[in-house]
């Protein structure tokens, strides 16, 4: 089962995604611990504070995997026990790291992402994937911003195509666009 949860900055998407992972985990008879794949790095005081808020809200019930490199995602996914609930937060940061830190081409990033989605499906992970809605305003004129935005659009479409559920959060309210959200 794969779910995609998107929303604007501070829209409540991470909290909605966490709740979905916990509900899926409770349905699982083997009661595997929920895994959290963190894509962000502690780059400045604001990011450190945001990470701490997320960690405090989740508590100790989650197994956290922090990506030292964005390209570690596939390796980390393979470490998670099959059929386990997992939350990836978030595609936006992961994609920026692949593009700007690892200097990957957008086509290469999309191929890698497709492989990761396929791995989630093949291993029957209850995967909830979070991303930011960034393309609802005026388009930026900067070339690299445009490359990044087009990449995110492609990644979002690939994810929604594969997802059983697609949810957008607006002011803390989850709106289901695809599948059933219970």
TrEMBL record:
List the Gene Ontology MF annotations in alphabetical order.
adenosylcobinamide kinase activity; ATP binding; cobinamide phosphate guanylyltransferase activity; GTP binding
Entries under SUPFAM superfamilies matching the protein: P-loop containing nucleoside triphosphate hydrolases
- Which residues are listed for GTP binding in this entry? 7-14, 38-40, 66, 89
Q: Under which pathway is this protein filed?
A: Cofactor biosynthesis; adenosylcobalamin biosynthesis; adenosylcobalamin from cob(II)yrinate a,c-diamide: step 6/7; Cofactor biosynthesis; adenosylcobalamin biosynthesis; adenosylcobalamin from cob(II)yrinate a,c-diamide: step 5/7
Q: Which GO terms describe its biological process?
A: cobalamin biosynthetic process
- Domain of life where this protein originates: Bacteria
InterPro entries for this protein = CobU/CobP, P-loop_NTPase
Which UniProt keyword terms apply here?
Answer: ATP-binding, Cobalamin biosynthesis, GTP-binding, Kinase, Nucleotide-binding, Transferase
Q: What is its EC number?
A: 2.7.1.156, 2.7.7.62
**Does the keyword section mention Calcium?**
no
Catalytic activity of the protein: adenosylcob(III)inamide + GTP = adenosylcob(III)inamide phosphate + GDP + H(+); adenosylcob(III)inamide + ATP = adenosylcob(III)inamide phosphate + ADP + H(+); adenosylcob(III)inamide phosphate + GTP + H(+) = adenosylcob(III)inamide-GDP + diphosphate
The residues responsible for catalysis, as annotated, are 54 (gmp-histidine intermediate)
* Functional description taken from the UniProt entry: Catalyzes ATP-dependent phosphorylation of adenosylcobinamide and addition of GMP to adenosylcobinamide phosphate.
As for family, the record states: Belongs to the CobU/CobP family.
Query: What's this protein's name?
Result: Adenosylcobinamide kinase
The species is Xylanibacillus composti
